[in-house]
Amino acid sequence: MTSNDLHWDDLRIFLAVARSESLSGAGKILRVDPATVGRRIARLEERMGAPLFAKSPQGYAMTDAGQRLLVHAERAEQALAGALEEVRGQPGTLSGQIRIGAPDGCANYLLPQVCMRIMQDNPDLEVQIVALPRVVNLSRREADMAIAVSPPATGRLLVQKITDYRLHLAAARSYLDHHPPIRALDDLRGHRIIGYIPDMIFDKELDYLHEIGVERVAMASNSVPVQFNWVCQGGGIGVVHDFAIPSGQGIRRILPDLISLTRSFYLIRHADDRRLERLNRFAVALCDGLKAEVQRLEAQS
Predict the structure, then answer these.
(1) Which residue ranges run through the membrane (predicted)?
(2) Do residues 247 and 278 share a domain?
(3) Domain count within the chain
(4) What does the pLDDT read at residue 196?
(5) 171 & 257 share domain
(6) What is the Cα–Cα distance from 17 to 163, expressed in whole angstroms?
(7) For 88, left (φ over 0), alpha (ψ -120 to 50), or beta?
(8) Backbone phi, then psi, for 50, in 5-degree steps?
(9) Same domain flag for 118 and 38
């Protein structure tokens, strides 16, 4: 096989299958028929002289040869992105599509307004927010960058702290008006508690109730907005982000002098993306915007 036998389009299809681990998933990414993706992968494997994927009912898993090709394919992808950025880029403005992955609390209560302000200054920019109650997988290119509540311990990643944020026990006035008063931690016994489904807590930093000493959760969800809606509707007491409180009606913090939690947001990016000026500039605007928005909303809570 000569260097002329392998083209960017081959690598583009290979990357889509590697990241989605299926022909149908790759077809959605590429907007082509899955059968066409399968034929292209088969031809690529024939030209490479080695199987790139192990096929099974569970999907397409990369072989050792596929893993070796992945390194070079991602480098080619980064080189092409950098070239397009330099050719198309306009000094002082951001354009093109950027996808951000984030836990659903940040994605619902912070990112919409922060990203809207960035886009007002950059009308050619397209932003996609992937809100997931789990860690976003950057290695599969689920997003260009991700926000997390704890820094990853492994991987070739760029990690920077964005800002701290605070959480408190809170409840709706409609709930507090019809239940016994809470003046001490012991008074929480007998009250209905709202929180995460224990076996679906995807990051130890989210295990708020264990830290407080609460053992039983009467109303549970893996979604922060669901928990907050329950609180707003008078369903019970929950640990609430201070930055979410202004979006509710009649939400009151409980025992703020006794129970106050602090967590942090981190921006995580692919290490190879450090050379992409467009993403660097967007990251700066995003971090500055998130820090300012957390401060603004917490001041209102």
Answers:
(1) none
(2) no
(3) 3
(4) 94
(5) yes
(6) 36
(7) alpha
(8) -160, 145
(9) no
Contact indicator for 29, 15 with CB cutoff of 8 Å: no
Res 273: pLDDT: 81
> What distance in Å separates the CA atoms of residue 9 and residue 212, rounded to the nearest whole number?
53
Query: Splitting the chain (301 residues) into consecutive groups of 10 residues, what average pLDDT does each group show?
Result: 68 88 89 91 91 89 90 78 63 80 95 97 92 74 89 85 97 96 91 93 87 87 96 97 96 94 94 83 96 97 87
User: Of 87, 122, 138, which marks where a domain is finished?
Assistant: 87
- Please give the distance of CA 85 from its chain centroid, rounded to a whole number: 24
Residues 192 and 258 in one domain: yes
Whether residues 33 and 146 fall in one domain: no
Where a domain ends, among 87, 111, 140? 87
Q: How far apart are CA 234 and CA 223, in angstroms?
A: 17
Q: Does the pTM of the predicted model rise above 0.90?
A: no
Q: Which domain holds residue 158?
A: 93-163+264-300
How many whole angstroms separate alpha carbon 14 and alpha carbon 37? 9
- The whole-angstrom separation of Cα 115 and Cα 125 is 10
What pLDDT, on the 0 to 100 scale, is given for residue 3? 44
CB neighbour burial string for 117-145, b if at least 16 within 10 angstroms, e if fewer:
ebeeebeebebebebbbebbebeebbbbb
CATH code, 219: 3.40.190.290
Residue 5: predicted pLDDT: 67
Neighbours of 267 (CB within 10 A): 21
CATH number, position 133:
3.40.190.10
Structural Rg of the chain based on CA atoms: 23
CA–CA dist 267, 233 (Å, integer): 32
Q: What is the DSSP letter of 225?
A: H
Q: Which pLDDT value is given to residue 20?
A: 86
**Residue 159 bridge partners (DSSP):** 268
Which tokens is 57 given? Answer: 């009912």
E strands present in 107-209: 125-131, 145-148, 157-172, 193-195
